[in-house]
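Structure ticket #2291
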Amino acid sequence: MTDSKRHEQGNEVREFLSTRRARITPQRAGLPVFGGNRRVTGLRREEVALLAGMSVDYYIRLERGNLRGASDSVLDSLSHALQLDDAERAHLYDLARATASERRPPTATGRIRPVVLRVLDAMTDQPAYIRNGRFDILAANPLGQALYAPVYDSPLFAQRGPVNTARFLFLDPGSADFWPEREKAANDSVALLRTETGRSPQDKGLMDLIGELSTKSDEFARRWARHDVRFHHSGVKQLRHPLVGDLALPYEALDLPADPGLRITVYSPEPDSPERQALDLLASWIRTSRRQ
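Resolution: structure written out below.
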């Protein structure tokens, strides 16, 4: 690992731990609050050390970015003291592995196996697409492409590929029309990208994307500074499609075990729901367009 990369990863650790510490008040941590003015609204370093059962000097070393040699029990204690959720705890472990210079899993190549493409195309009545950790859409079935038509049609991707939903969200003004809950979409996207940097700190394409968005979008840069992370497995996504209107689509996002770094997202509305009817209308439009 180069010195610059080690410094960069140390900064990542320091900022993650300090932002987690700053959000927890003594009252929330169950600590007594004595008189006098506190210079910080969150926990002091010595309070985190007390809660984690470690010396103040050792915690200071950790927060300065040096997680090298930190055992699982230390990381577990720190996770408990900082009240980390599952995604944050996993991110802390990823950061620890990165600073230990462990060999990282290979970055996704972007090549999708033919059998996976056949599975994707077999989903004729459910929009589905495959993306990598950088939010590049690498493949989509016809209904998935039609659902994401505003993204595919963005001028951002006229001269460059692949289609990338994070670029569209933060760099195309039309994204506000596609995502009615744009604030949530923006928060989720940044948190997922932050999570991915912990998993894949050596992914140059990922780092280039983050650098581009940080430079071109103040909205992205503000969120990036929060160091929020999250998992993204299932939920309901709100979309506004130019042909079929507002949609509240349940989805499942599934990792492809044989293709590390790739994930398939499938939208599956309830039978006879307005969303199902809207997707059927969109599928009919696809068939009509193909005949013309």
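Closing remark: The chain has a mean pLDDT of 91.
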